[in-house]
Amino acid sequence: MKWSQKLRPSLKALQVTMEYQNVEEYSGNFEKPLPKSEIENVLSYNKNDVDSTEELLNRSKKDIELRLAIEDEYHISALNKDGVNLGMEIIKTRYLQATNKQ
What we know:
It is a single chain. The protein is an all-alpha fold. It has one domain (11-20, 36-98). It contains 4 helices and no strands. The two termini are 31 Å apart.
């Protein structure tokens, strides 16, 4: 799901999906100046988002390494493709190579 072009989930949705230990919502208004009394809450909220993003990176490491290897081998953009589109791109590349149309 995280690779899907159509289904770009929010960080909160990813936190829920990966059963992250602390899913936080910020109840303040991002459109208004931040009151001093809210600084600690915002810092905690932001740190939680950074920590969960790092956790997602760690859990996705093998997928990312595979896509980087595919990029090296086939010279295609692979990091932002879902499995179906990635497969189609590899097939297209191999077809063009096999038919000398590249």
